[in-house]
């Protein structure tokens, strides 16, 4: 199997891509995606376990002292790009990216030692709860409250758009406290926690609304001094999501190009018509630019990530939607039917575009950072 990357990856990174793509070609086919998105949990436990044990993907970017391989974020991006290409159904992003990065960024060695080895081994499904209704992902809008009493910390409030929130065993909740913003670990089976699956347009990524009524919680990191650390973890999540978006866009370009070569109309392949050529060229340009932006963010250091992640998330969000819409036009009416795969990518493109904030929000963030 040949994999054309067009970027400066080394041999080991190319081999990682080949291994992940080969695995997903077999275990995340269109038929399997359709089967899983119709289930309550939305993932196959055997596939989840095999990814952790056979390919060791769960611990890829987790430090060795906590059971991981200690790889860089670039390797993590390669894995996510291939998962986006295959529309993998499962809590990988929620657990291995979002929750793990929050634990790593928290500075809490005890919490990291407790949870990261289980994430690396595939024994733990985790997620993070940040957004609250229309307030979105703005940390200034956090209203969920954590208060310390004689029996420890208790959480009250609501979180929504929590990816894999209905099934996660560990939930990292961003809350306001008397001291300021805090991050708290909550057991998914805790008393007072109500989890309601949300009906979403994108059925390949499960989301839930969580309601907390005096739920017992454990602080992660220093309560009241967590804002910068949480913001940094969310920036890393945006960069990671951008690579997933780039993978989905690239898959649509490939599929649309193949279809344009084989679909005959008026005695010629439709790819021979200038309008279709232009459409495919525009899609390829958007896809390649999205990959460049996404990987720039994954290569970025701690200082660069402040502006590289919003740039990547904004561009990749728009690019994925544009490419998905272009694919629908190339495929024609069949692309909008339930039986065709193109609509699955279009829905993932739209859901990913608003996850962690829309393109306009990230452009405003980038502009503010640059002083514009």
Description:
- It comes from Nonomuraea purpurea.
- Its EC number is 1.-.-.-.
- With 372 residues, the protein is of the alpha+beta class.
- It contains 11 helices and 9 strands.
- The protein has 3 domains: 11-124, Butyryl-Coa Dehydrogenase, subunit A, domain 1 (Orthogonal Bundle); 127-225, Butyryl-CoA Dehydrogenase, subunit A, domain 2; 228-370, Butyryl-CoA Dehydrogenase, subunit A, domain 3.
- It has helices spanning 11-27, 30-37, 45-53, 73-86, 92-106, 109-121, 227-262, 274-299, 305-331, 342-354, 359-370; strands at residues 126-129, 145-149, 152-163, 170-177, 180-187, 193-197, 207-220, 264-265, 268-269.
- The strands form 2 sheets. Strands 1, 2, 3, 4, 5, 6 and 7 form a 7-stranded mixed sheet that branches.
- Helix 9 (305-331) runs antiparallel to helix 10 (342-354).
CATH topology of the largest domain: Butyryl-CoA Dehydrogenase, subunit A, domain 3
Count of DSSP strands: 9
> What does the overall shape look like?
globular
Q: Compute the number of helices.
A: 11
CATH architecture of the largest domain: Up-down Bundle
CATH superfamily of the largest domain: Butyryl-CoA Dehydrogenase, subunit A, domain 3
Total of domains = 3
Strand percentage, roughly?
A: 15-25%
What is the percent of helical residues?
40-55%
Assign the structural class, choosing from mainly alpha, mainly beta, alpha/beta, alpha+beta, or little secondary structure.
alpha+beta
* Average pLDDT figure: 95
How many whole angstroms does the radius of gyration measure? 21 Å
Low-pLDDT stretches = 1-6
